[in-house]
Amino acid sequence: MSGHPGFIPVNLLTGFLGSGKTTLLRRLLQDPSLAGAAVLINEFGEVGLDHHLIERIDETTVLLKAGCVCCTIRGELSEAIRDLHSKRERGLVPCFDRLVIESTGLADPFPILSTVRADPVLSSHFTLGNVVATVDAATAARQTLRRPEWLKQVASADRIVLTKTDIAAPDAVAALSAELLALNPTAEAVDVHGSSWSAAWLMAEDAATGDPLARRPAEEHGEPHGDHDHHPRAGQAPDQNQGHGHHDGHGHGHGHGHGHGHGNRHDPNRHDATIHAFSVTLDRPIDWTGFGIWLTMLLNRHGAKVLRVKGILDLCGEERPVAVHGVQHLVHPPVHMAAWPAGPRQSRLVFIVDGLAEATVRASLETFMALADDMPAGEAAA
Amino acid sequence: MCSLCGILGVENHWTDAVARPGVFSRNDETRSRRLERARRIRLANRVLAAYRLQLGDWQGRAYLLSTATGKTEVIDSLAHLWPAAEQLSGRSFDPLDPDLLSRLTARR
């Protein structure tokens, strides 16, 4: 079940105000696969099921010291999870096998994820699972898209659930689907009213332990949206997968060669035109040490603008691929994948950034990798 | 311990993750840990040299970050290297800075 044996997976359920988080949560908790899940919500309990654990968390944030974002800990969230775990260990509550946190509609997911990762106690018992975001298809286009919180929630998501698609215009749903795909090409989106998803699939931890690019855009394979997998793209019923409109900036095909890439850009006239996704590929094995130095340096200065980074690395000296995942300043422990996915063996990183230029990021990565190349692996003495 | 904020136990940085099933790490055995650590210091120094800073090892457990004038900070991991370097030097360390990239390329 868990990607890391012995650790309890934590799923974050996020989404803008009124986007249907609690409704979805209520539905999920009725599924047998989540019968053993504990739930923390930050609003007064609405999902009162006796065999689940519901506690209230307020929005207190403890800023330990400005600039030390690695240690950003939301104090009361940390205490609430610690308390739950303590009760679990003492047999005061059922031995839950998963924790689902429902955040407020205005919450930035990063401090919540960072709390689980950075808190020394929590990180010893819990591991981060998929981030699930609800998006209200009926109002997203005209309201919440203008909110930075909404953008961060969508960019952080591993799974996106489109809600209220039954009362939204089909054209609007299709346009929103394209928007979401452009904004976060690494996430997979489903219609809440569709049958192509399950609670277990939604509340899993495969995004942190599996192939981070398994849900990459269909266009990269020369296929139309939604035809390549079991889960239609955001809000699309199977018969909506064809020809649903504007995909400016998509469909360029693979970027080949060292450092090539391509972007999935929004309409430049939109308010969020500075937020865009792009991928960078490297055709030769890269140096782990150099990559770590580069990414830590990048996130230290620009972490707030790197809404998401996910990728597969072909590392020098490693046969198997290594997956990396990051949300803003937070990077998950890298994981060894079982085998290379189909296609060429290469490092491939997808970035979702706010205001950073693709060419600049790529040039920087190439420079740092070249610097590491100049230092052979055996040369370690300082 | 985080040298910047003082919190205890924050050591499991992703570049040096605690070895456990499924996790990629070179922090799994003594030899690979030492090799990786030495390589990290050497490579970081190639970048830090552009700012006249130097990184060294401290008993295999921490790093010493020093300025040219001898001002020194003890740090635990790469997570703290760049904030500490900026604090010590009073400068911004931006890997997207074209001038830095030019200098790094010129030093090769």
Description:
The complex is a heterodimer of chains A (382) and B (108). By secondary structure, chain A is α/β, with parallel strands linked by helices. Chain A has helices spanning 21-29, 75-89, 109-118, 122-125, 148-156, 170-183, 199-202, 206-209, 288-302, 358-373; strands at residues 8-15, 37-41, 54-56, 98-102, 126-136, 159-163, 188-191, 261-264, 275-282, 306-313, 322-327, 330-331, 335-336, 347-354. The longest helix of chain A is centred in the last third of the chain and has 16 residues, at 358-373. Chain A starts with 7 loop residues before the first strand and ends in a 9-residue tail after the last helix. With 108 residues, chain B is an alpha+beta fold. In chain B, strands 1-2-3 form a three-stranded antiparallel beta sheet. In chain B, strand 2 and strand 3 (72-75) form a beta hairpin.
Fold blueprint:
The complex is a heterodimer of chains A (382) and B (108).
Chain A: E1 8-15, H1 21-29, E2 37-41, E3 54-56, H2 75-89, E4 98-102, H3 109-118, H4 122-125, E5 126-136, H5 148-156, E6 159-163, H6 170-183, E7 188-191, H7 199-202, H8 206-209, E8 261-264, E9 275-282, H9 288-302, E10 306-313, E11 322-327, E12 330-331, E13 335-336, E14 347-354, H10 358-373
Parallel strand pairs in A: 1-4, 1-5, 2-3, 2-4, 5-6, 6-7
Antiparallel strand pairs in A: 8-9, 9-14, 10-11, 10-14, 11-12, 11-13
Helix pairs in contact in A: 9-10
Chain B: H1 30-48, E1 53-58, E2 62-67, E3 72-75, H2 78-89, H3 98-106
Antiparallel strand pairs in B: 1-2, 2-3
Function (chain A): Zinc chaperone that directly transfers zinc cofactor to target proteins, thereby activating them. Zinc is transferred from the CXCC motif in the GTPase domain to the zinc binding site in target proteins in a process requiring GTP hydrolysis.
Domain CobW C-terminal (chain A): 275-369
Keywords (chain A): Chaperone, Hydrolase, Nucleotide-binding
